[in-house]
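Justification of computing resources. Each target in the renewal requires a structure prediction run like the one illustrated here; the chain below, 349 residues long, is used simply to show the kind of job we budget for.
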Amino acid sequence: MTASKVAPTGREARAEGESGSMPRVLVVTNKWPSPTRPAFGSFVAAQVASLRDAGVEVAIHVIRGDAHLAAYLTDVPVIARKVREFDADLVHAHYGLAGWSASWQRRPLVVSFCGDDLLGTPGMTGRLTWKSRVAIRMSHRAARRADAIICKSENLRQALPADEDRRRAVVVPNGVDLTQFHPGDRLAARARLGLQPDAALVLFPHAPDQRAQKRFDLAEAAVALAALQLPGVQLLPVSGIAHEVMPDWYRAADCLLLTSRAEGSPNTVKEALASGLPVVSVDVGDVRHWLHRVSGCEIAEPRADALAAAMVRVLRGDRQVDSTPVLQELDQALTASRIVAVYRSLLPA
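Resulting structure tokens:
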């Protein structure tokens, strides 16, 4: 009598299933939107949504490291338990600190590095804070333990200290939901947001108190100089806005201004381009990769006079850009497919 084969279950069943089957992924992140901080980690939530749209089964574990630094340690056994309960095929950690916490469980690990986890966070003196120095060391360990590494930009890949890690890291910028971020009626957007219809609004996509890293003082000085040539130019700081509301802010503005000291792949630049909004930026992160292909945008030296001159040129133009040359690359559906390819590379054929 021939023994019948026992049907495989769980991860074994998926491994033996069709080659096109999607993995089960536990996403571990220390950045995730909440009612009190609706914009915090919105780029992670958007990527998770795109992966689910692609058919990936995703569960989420949020480390509340912003409330208690000890959470990165105390959540280590919690993550291991959730991996078992969800029967995850792999774990995808967003941000280096989350990667450190996720590196102690035994399933394949993907770590996405986003910016200051590898570049650090400058204080008011311009030197890196001690907390960010610790975070960088923990991120380095997460990279060493990871089975796959995703960096949002080439400068982040180069910031990895080990040659082996730089060789195996792939650069996959966050994508943009093109169904939400697209050109629209400027005056209608301003009416919905209660903004002046005739002002020249320069969108600054960070909080004014982020002077050390985002250099709000530089943005203020640049706009003040631009206003000497174009009366009516106003700086419009925007932060803490729910992601689904942001498209109207891009449509309402006349240009975006980015003055950051350091960035990986700033999502605001890509969302602005998808919305048809011109961008004036310092040469930071992967900004040049996007702006050099879109007419009507400018990269300037990090000086108030240089940024002001660039803004004046942009604001005297159409105040609308054609993002067609980069639109396909911006689509978050493409990003999701590239991430799925990383997942598949770690699982049995």
